[in-house]
Amino acid sequence: MSNHSGESAQASEEDGPRILIVGPSWVGDMVMAQSLLMTLKRQMPNCIIDVLGPKWSAPIIHRMPEARQALTLDVGHGESGLRTRWQLARRLKGEYDRAIVLPRSLKSALVPFFARIPVRVGFTGEQRYGVINRRRTLDKTVLDQTVKRFVSLGLSQSGAPEHIPFPSLRIDSDNQQLLKQRFNLPDRGVIGMMPGAEYGPAKQWPLDYFHALARQLVEQGKHVVVLGGPKDHPAGARIAENLPNVHNLCGETRLEDAVDLLALCDQVVSNDSGLMHVAASVGTHIQALYGSSSPHYTPPLTSNADIHWLNLDCSPCFKRVCPLGHTNCLKQMPVARIESAIKQYEVGR
Predict the structure, then answer these.
(1) Residue 268 to residue 275: CA distance in whole angstroms
(2) In terms of CB atoms within 10 Å, which of 17, 107, 162, 203 comes out highest?
(3) Full domain range(s) for residue 26
(4) How does pLDDT run across 8-52, given as a tens digit for each residue?
């Protein structure tokens, strides 16, 4: 279990309800979950909020001022981890008044159930009757975005939320300075690129396009940082190939470092991915590239973005791999379009 120490941890636990949020399993969704935390704090300023999530998620939760601490489950993706969940639940008995379970799976609701948290809120799904005792029906026409679904679970009544606060992760300026020195980055003129998409290749703009765009940006005097996990390192190497001032940092940084590096960037060019939502949460301008997914369903939660989506007849298919075999929704999105949008934003600043 990982605890987050800080001023928020010193708050009097007698002041308000104690709430456990069971968070989602994807980076972008965990960032969007902050909108729920912000909503709860607006409704109940003195409430105490802890967030339970996968082990990787602690650095993101620690950057949410509304969260007192991060509780982590060291369970692999897709595993039930029944014993691990039971052991954690035993330690949490009597600690919370309410749990809000964001995922719709049965296993995600087990810790609050085993811990006997009195009120357990979540959407009906996977035979969770009894395990979730304040069930909500998910109307996908009303709650047509992931963030709306999350925030709605914090409201007293079902329905679409009237107001959705945008996530705002804390930036560690000291760590940011260390990263600038470590990677020899300038104060200005840094463009981020996020070529990965954990979901699948139908969400990934071609690497040759990223490389061509990086070449043009470097020729204009920019530095380019490519961010992602270890699996994205070969993609970063392709983008940086034979180009000066293109830094392939995929797999070279921690998740919390990515938060601070994205805050350093003037703009980022990103597929619909978790790091896109991180960039939105630190206020960096986003060139958001959508292929098989839809900006109507998982938009970057910011007013500081350009959305690039061709909206072809076959879009959005929400498939991991293009079912038609051509991925035209991304291949027909030219480099010139993104470069022009980057320049337009610079001129308008």
Answers:
(1) 10
(2) 203
(3) 7-152
(4) 344 444 579 999 999 999 999 999 999 999 999 999 999 999 999
